[in-house]
């Protein structure tokens, strides 16, 4: 080979290398641009619900088909399955205790001397939760004394939260039923039932209607009595007037959810509210009940703020919407645990959806981010599920200490925290990176994808300490997982004297 030939080859080789490098650079640029575009799309406020730009477009959904199973892995039965009791619901307990205190009951006399057996029964089961519940009342008082000190800082957040609160409780739609279901559920019915071609057609149309009315994710399933409360029937404002029997026409349940607005939710605790998601979910339940009535079918909406008769997260699991996570919340592949649920029980024959196995349990076993970040230490840090709740295997969760922290939060209503939702790696808008990862992880039997993701999560993202989420008057820093969005910062819009610093990830992250 001559030098010239050699040189020509070198030139050709180096051209090839150049082209290869150029190709790689171009591919890199393309991926980078696509990542940027995907990221931006995911962050775009127009993609409010986080899963796509249309209310029922094909681009919004995770394809659950390959992951369908007969028995949901996060609803594993390991004991005697029992229906939830009135007192299992935190707000029922709070209602009874608040009333007793108002009536002059001495809190120091202990739960064994509480005038209602339901409370005695619950805290005999969970004695360590009793002081947490009592402390919640102490925190309510402390909050009241200190709340003015942060009024300026949270003024825009409170205005936002209050708007939804008014929407929730001033508007009476759907109305809370005040008669027996055999009457109230048929009040929606106009005319004789429309005949659907098949239960599958009924399911398809019901889901489309739920999306049209604003639902992001919808599932249908047979109503399992295991998730129907005892003694919580809504029949005119009293709590004790139900004989526990489940009405015959309560055959199927349509369960659906919407995410809370993303930016305030990421800025939990002080800036977020559940009422935005609750308001939309509640309204959808009314619209869907009205539509079912127009079609000739009974409908009983289950909605936030109207006292549920059912426990919706396990029902959503049965309907294939997602799985139960360490933080005790439903996790969906589209919006993670950032979902607020409502439902409508009906006598319409609907083809049920199947539950899914997305290996969320395995992810939670390795992750523990919510447990490490929870300001009240309410979430189990165990490696494996460590509790049995009414016969089902679960991670342990202390409702009462969680509620105790709610009572300290600088939200206008003094209600709620949501940090465990904000910090969860599944709580991400659906840009293409997340879409790819969500497809990969459940298909990876080695767990390498999960471990790599978690390493990235721990190393690339800042998490304030659990203590930092507390308000200053209990020794914290009023931290959020994210700093508040710009439209919630009063110094950007109002004449205020900014005396505070924000602690959390940059809002655009
Ligand atoms: S809502 Fe807050 S206090 Fe309750 S479990 Fe979640 S992070 Fe903990
Ligand atoms: S933060 Fe981690 S452990 Fe907690 S629910 Fe989300 S994935 Fe599971």
Description:
This protein is an alpha+beta fold and about 500 residues long. It has 2 domains: about 1-45; about 65-85 and about 125-495, no CATH class. Helices cover about 40% and strands about 5% of the residues. Helix 4 runs parallel beside helix 13 and helix 5 packs parallel to helix 9. The model is unreliable at about 1-50 (pLDDT under 50).
What's the rounded overall pLDDT mean? 87
Structural class, judged by helices and strands?
A: alpha+beta
Order of helices and strands: HHHHHHHEEHHEHEEEHHEEHHHHH
Distance between the termini: 57 Å
Helix fraction, binned, reads 25-40%
Task: Summarize the topology.
Blueprint: H1 3-43, H2 90-102, H3 117-125, H4 130-146, H5 155-169, H6 181-184, H7 199-212, E1 217-222, E2 252-258, H8 262-266, H9 275-294, E3 299-302, H10 312-318, E4 323-324, E5 330-331, E6 340-346, H11 360-367, H12 369-373, E7 387-389, E8 392-394, H13 399-406, H14 419-422, H15 432-440, H16 448-460, H17 490-493
Antiparallel strand pairs: 1-2, 2-6, 3-6, 4-5, 7-8
The structure holds iron/sulfur cluster (2 copies).
What attributes characterize this protein structure?
8 strands, 17 helices, single chain, binds iron/sulfur cluster, alpha+beta, 509 residues, two-stranded antiparallel sheet, 2 domains, four-stranded antiparallel beta sheet
């Amino acid at each position: 080979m001559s030098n010239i030939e050699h040189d020509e080859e070198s030139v050709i080789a180096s051209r090839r290398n150049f082209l290869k490098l150029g190709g790689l650079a171009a591919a890199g640029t393309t991926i980078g641009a696509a990542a940027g575009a995907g990221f931006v799309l995911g962050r775009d406020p127009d993609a409010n619900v986080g899963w796509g730009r249309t209310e029922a477009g094909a681009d919004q959904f995770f394809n659950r088909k390959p992951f369908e199973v007969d028995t949901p892995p996060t609803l594993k039965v390991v004991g005697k399955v029992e229906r939830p009791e009135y007192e299992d619901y935190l707000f029922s307990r709070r209602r009874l205790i608040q009333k007793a205190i108002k009536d002059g009951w001495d809190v120091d006399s202990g739960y064994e001397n509480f005038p209602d057996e339901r409370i005695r029964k619950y805290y005999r089961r969970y004695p360590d939760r009793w002081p947490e519940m009592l402390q919640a009342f102490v925190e309510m008082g402390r909050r009241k004394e200190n709340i003015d000190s942060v009024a300026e800082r949270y003024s825009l957040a409170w205005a936002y939260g209050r708007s939804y609160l008014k929407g929730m409780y001033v508007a009476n739609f759907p109305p809370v039923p005040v008669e027996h279901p055999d009457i109230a559920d048929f009040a929606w019915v106009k005319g004789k039932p429309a005949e659907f071609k098949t239960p599958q057609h009924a399911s398809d149309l019901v889901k489309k209607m739920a999306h049209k009315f604003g639902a992001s994710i919808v599932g249908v399933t047979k109503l399992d009595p295991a998730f129907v409360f005892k003694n919580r029937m809504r029949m005119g404002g009293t709590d004790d007037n139900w004989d526990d029997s489940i009405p015959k026409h309560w055959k199927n349940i349509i369960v659906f959810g919407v995410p809370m607005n993303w930016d305030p939710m990421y800025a939990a605790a002080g800036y977020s509210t559940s009422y935005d998601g609750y308001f939309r979910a509640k309204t959808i339940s009314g619209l869907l009940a009205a539509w079912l009535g127009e079609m000739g079918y009974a409908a009983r909406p289950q909605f936030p703020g109207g006292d549920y008769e059912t426990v919706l997260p396990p029902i959503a699991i049965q309907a294939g919407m997602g799985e139960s996570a360490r933080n005790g919340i439903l996790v969906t592949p589209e919006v993670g645990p950032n979902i607020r649920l409502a439902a409508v029980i009906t006598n319409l024959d609907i083809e049920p959806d199947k539950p899914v196995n997305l290996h969320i349990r395995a992810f939670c076993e390795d992750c523990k981010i919510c447990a490490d970040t929870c300001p009240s230490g309410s979430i189990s840090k165990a490696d494996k599920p460590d509790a049995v709740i009414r016969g089902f295997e679960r991670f342990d969760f202390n409702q009462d200490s969680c509620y105790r922290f709610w009572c300290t939060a600088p939200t206008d209503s003094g209600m709620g925290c949501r940090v465990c939702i904000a910090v969860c790696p599944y709580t991400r808008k659906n840009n293409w990176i997340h879409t790819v990862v969500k497809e990969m992880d459940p298909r990876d039997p080695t767990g390498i994808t999960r471990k790599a993701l978690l390493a990235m999560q721990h190393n690339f993202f800042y998490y304030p300490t659990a203590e930092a989420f507390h308000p200053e008057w209990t020794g914290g820093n009023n931290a959020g997982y994210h700093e508040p969005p710009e439209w919630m910062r009063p110094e950007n819009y109002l004449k205020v004297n900014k005396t505070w610093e924000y602690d959390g990830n940059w809002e655009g992250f």
